[in-house]
């Protein structure tokens, strides 16, 4: 079988510098937030499209994207945080951080509850039948979106930086004793 040459990697000087946080395990969590924000925008487009054009192929495609994300990577992201980020913070015994982690876990529960209410309607659109209620989507989406965006803002402004500090301190201890 003929061997295909791999594309040449550009010299280091031509590659963009990777930010510091790209090496501490948080890059995929940050990426998941960007994906969630983008998907909430697509969800808004879907609801506006249903209102203006009704059910058509475009609506089906938008709904399929929304469904795949919030049933898949969106949900996995919350599991990852509960497994990989929150326990580290709770182990510090800091009452303020404990309260924040409780709130974030509660948010995950509410996001999940809200999505359970929305998803059958999105699924109906994705499958191309009229079993969806537009007024319900119009009323519930802003609540879902606000909850999601507040949640991400709290994680990015307070909780991820604290978790990064914990990780950096553990790494410094490890290097000091190596
Ligand atoms: Fe979260
Ligand atoms: Fe998150």
Query: What distance lies between the first and last C-alpha atoms, to the nearest angstrom?
Result: 48 Å
Going by CATH, the homologous superfamily would be nmb1532 protein domain like
Average residue pLDDT: 89
> What is the string of SSEs from the N terminus onward?
HHHHH
User: Total domains, how many?
Assistant: 1
Name the overall outline: elongated
Cofactors and ligands present? Answer: fe (ii) ion
Name the CATH class: Mainly Alpha
Proportion of residues in β-strands? under 5%
The CATH architecture can be named as: Up-down Bundle
Tell me what the structure shows.
It contains five helices and no strands. The chain is mainly α. The chain has one domain (28-177): Up-down Bundle (Four Helix Bundle (Hemerythrin (Met), subunit A)). Helix 1 (27-53) packs antiparallel against helix 5 (134-177), helix 2 (57-71) packs antiparallel against helix 4 and helix 3 packs antiparallel against helix 4 (95-126). The radius of gyration is 21 Å and the shape is elongated.
What does the secondary structure layout of this molecule look like, with pairings?
Layout: H1 27-53, H2 57-71, H3 73-90, H4 95-126, H5 134-177
């Amino acid at each position: 079988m003929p061997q295909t040459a791999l594309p040449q990697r550009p010299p280091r000087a031509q590659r963009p510098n990777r930010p510091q946080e790209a090496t501490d395990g948080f890059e995929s969590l940050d990426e998941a937030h960007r994906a969630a924000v983008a998907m909430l925008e697509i969800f808004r487009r879907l609801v506006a499209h249903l209102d203006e054009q009704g059910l058509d192929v475009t609506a089906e495609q938008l709904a399929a994207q929304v469904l795949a994300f919030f049933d898949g990577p969106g949900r996995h992201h919350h599991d990852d945080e509960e497994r990989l980020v929150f326990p580290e913070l709770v182990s510090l015994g800091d009452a303020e951080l404990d309260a924040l982690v409780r709130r974030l876990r509660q948010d995950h529960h509410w996001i999940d509850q809200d999505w359970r209410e929305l998803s059958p309607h999105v699924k109906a659109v994705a499958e191309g039948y009229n079993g969806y209620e537009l007024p319900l989507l119009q009323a519930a989406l802003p609540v879902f979106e606000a909850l999601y965006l507040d949640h991400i803002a709290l994680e990015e402004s307070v909780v991820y930086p604290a978790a990064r500090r914990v990780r950096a301190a553990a790494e410094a201890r490890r290097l000091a004793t190596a």
